[in-house]
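Hi R.,

Here's the chain you asked about this morning:
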Amino acid sequence: MTRFLSKIVVNGILLVILLRYLAEADLIAATFTAVALSVIAYLAGDQFVLRMTNNTLALVADALLALAFLWLAARYFQWPYSYAEILVTVVILTAAEALYHKLLPSWDDGKSSLR
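And the predicted structure, written out as tokens:
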């Protein structure tokens, strides 16, 4: 449960800030998008792809998922969110994901106080 909550907090905060700044999204839409993407990415990327493959493929899957999801959200909410801005957002989220994935083994070993 700690892994899931930490993913939502980290991705959620980053994504809400980026969506508010880059996409000019209102707080409710940005929060909804951030939570929805975090939940889907956790289930698909961390619980499925990461367990079946490796960290690199899980990061690629998370990045592609974020790219598609943010593009769809931008169209649905009619945000002035360019492809370049979406890519910047995806790169930042993927960097955060890489740090998150780096912490996962330490949680398994009981070395992290976040456990």
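The chain has four helices and no strands.

Let me know if you need anything else.
M.
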